[in-house]
Amino acid sequence: MIDTNPTVSAEMAEELRQVIGPRSVLPQAALSTHTTFKVGGPADWLCLPETVSQLRDILSWINKVGTPWIVLGNGSNILFSDDGFRGVVIKIRGARPVDHTLWHLSHSGVQVRVGAGVGLARVASYCAEAGLTGMEWATGIPGVVGGAVRGNAGAHGWEMGDVINELEVLTSAGMLETLQRDSLSFRYRHSGLASDLLITGATLSLTEDDPSIIRRRIQEYTEQRKNTQPSADQSAGCMFKNPAGESAGRLIDIAGCKGVAVGGAMVSPLHGNFIVNRGGATSKDTLSLIDSIREKVRMETGVELELEVRVVGSI
Ligand code: EPU
Questions:
Q1: Which residues touch 270 (CB under 8 Å, ≥6 apart)?
Q2: In 3D, which of 280, 283, 268, 279 has the Cα closest to residue 238?
Q3: pLDDT tens digit sequence for 131-158
């Protein structure tokens, strides 16, 4: 039996609303509208901080009321349960860069300072205009900087960890700390960052290059992505991690899973490692399809696929 009672009462939430503003604390927010896969039931509370100071207020309130919480960026690498999330979802995402917010973006020389809530595509285009190379690979990735750092997102042979110089994080006790690159342990789709640290921003170390050459590289990557990935469809990106030296998409393809569907969830006919929402997909559909893909790949190739997408909530 799933407990659908909110973990925080409206009275307790009112306290936070008084501090950070009523429009920044929303009850019963449909997570399907905050994820790229468009799946997920309601979150008890959705918090929309704009500044580090508001984020600190939210954390201090969470510590007081003692509720589960989770940070969301663009919701591009996550599968929420149809029952939603019992607790607080903190969404850190800005539509465009603004100084002194969690989505600031500026540079000095080859160092780019960026807030956790800036979209990766925005960072890529900003760096291209500034004549800085090193972020072109991120151009078609729908996530934000915070999520990309946490999961060490990557494409075209590059990873977020390649360009990180420093990270700014908030501890669960509300302390703002700077982590130097050598204290981080990036590896494939892994940052080694403790789960209770909230990423608020990063400094990227890039290299000067001709803006027209950088823009051409971005165009090439965009074209490549358009031809090989279902970018226009609703998905959570690549569903599985690539096994060492292999492509999960290729293995899923060999196992004959492309086009296979459960309810509204279907394996993309274009790229095997994407599950697309062809309308009305549920988390149950998706998990059932994931199980069946894993089973088929195991039978056909002997490889056990590991999820890249984070699955959250009781399914
Ligand atoms: N392939 C197939 N069938 C498929 C898919 C791929 O045969 O259905 C083959 C391709 O033809 C190619 C090889 O597998 O020979 C590799 O495919 P691709 O270049 O598409 O790269 P990938 O390994 O499937 C990885 C990342 C992507 C990233 C691309 C491009 C992972 C899990 N995936 O995909 O990242 O965009 O490289 O650099 O690491 C993500 O992490 O969410 C993601 C989409």
A1: 228, 229, 230
A2: 268
A3: 999 999 999 999 999 999 999 999 999 9
Q: Tell me which residue has its CA closest to atom 9 in ligand 1.
A: 250
Q: Which residue has the tokens 């190739």?
A: 301
**Rg of the chain (C-alpha set):** 20
Residues acting as catalytic residues: 189, 238, 308
120 and 153 Cβ atoms separated by less than 8 Å: yes
| DSSP SS3 for 23 | helix
User: Is there an atom of ligand 1 within 6 Å of 310 CB?
Assistant: no
DSSP string spanning 226-268? HHHS-TTS-EEEESBPPPTTS-HHHHHHHTT-TT-EETTEEE-
234 lines ligand 1 (CB under 6 A): no
**Is the CB of residue 259 less than 8 Å from the CB of residue 269?**
yes
pTM score, whole prediction: 0.95
Q: Is 273 in the pocket of ligand 1 (CB under 6 A)?
A: yes
What is the Cα–Cα distance from 15 to 139, expressed in whole angstroms?
40
* Distances in whole angstroms, Cα of residue 307 to Cα of each of 144, 165, 293, 294: 20, 28, 11, 10
Ligand 1 atom 25: the closest Cα is on which residue?
155
- Interstrand relation of 158-159 and 154-155 (parallel, antiparallel or unpaired): antiparallel
- Report whether pLDDT(1) > 60: no
- The span from the CA of 276 to the CA of 260, in Å, is 11
Ligand 1 pocket member 238 (CB < 6 A) = yes
Q: Please state whether beta strands 198-205 and 164-170 pair in parallel, antiparallel, or not at all (unpaired).
A: antiparallel
